[in-house]
Amino acid sequence: MEAIDYALAQLKSELADDLLAEVLKMNEYDFERLVVELLVKMGYGKPEQNTDAVTKKSGDEGIDGIVKADRLGFDAVYTQAEKWKEGSNIGRPEIQKFLGAMVGQGAMKGLFITTGQFTSGATDFVKKQLNHKIVLIDGKQFAELMIEYGLGVATVNTLKIQRIDTDYFSADE
């Protein structure tokens, strides 16, 4: 069973790498729409509530999207989606700009998604924010979430693993 678990983990990791490579081929605006689509699949609001969740290309004041946080629309999550080259690092200054954009909009919750990675300075800065909640998702995490929620992937095979039903053999007659 360990060998199967290991093989499945390897397949998932390779799929995540391949998926991220496909995402990197997208233009920035399509990437922003992909982020919103993933959030809707994750249960943030209804699709019809988020049809205009991606902000316009210019004049967005540092906010790429606004997604309803719940199905009733009581709260919103402000998003920043940055498609950067593989191996690129997002540092504290980018997160500070996003926080400033959130404050300018009166937002309390933000999600910063990138195809790159975050520096320790960026993650440390986010941990210090007590009044505003910012979640950071890097490229690998983004690809893993896409897999988990079935976005951009298709199931080609299902593995059925069986074991002995000991209850069947130990049933009293």
Textual characterization of the structure:
- The chain is of the alpha/beta class and 173 residues long.
- 42% of the residues lie in helices and 15% in strands.
- It has helices at 2-24, 28-41, 92-105, 120-127, 139-148, 166-169; strands spanning 65-68, 76-82, 89-90, 109-114, 117-118, 133-137.
- The protein has a 4-stranded mixed β-sheet.
- Strand 1 and strand 2 (76-82) form a beta hairpin.
- Helix 1 (2-24) packs across helix 5 and helix 3 runs parallel beside helix 4.
- The longest helix has 23 residues, at 2-24.
- The protein is elongated and about 70 Å long.
Write the layout of secondary structure elements.
Elements: H1 2-24, H2 28-41, E1 65-68, E2 76-82, E3 89-90, H3 92-105, E4 109-114, E5 117-118, H4 120-127, E6 133-137, H5 139-148, H6 166-169
Parallel strand pairs: 2-4, 3-5, 4-6
Antiparallel strand pairs: 1-2
Helix pairs in contact: 1-5, 3-4
The helix-strand sequence is HHEEEHEEHEHH
Strand content: 15-25%
Topology, number of strands? 6
Question: How confident overall, as mean pLDDT?
Answer: 87
Distance between the termini: 33 Å
Task: Evaluate the radius of gyration.
Answer: 20 Å
Q: How are the strands ordered across the major sheet?
A: 1-2-4-6
Query: What composes the largest sheet?
Result: 4 strands, mixed
Helix content: 40-55%
Q: Low-confidence stretches at least 5 residues in length (pLDDT < 50)?
A: none
- Total helix count? 6
- Principal-axes geometry comes out as elongated
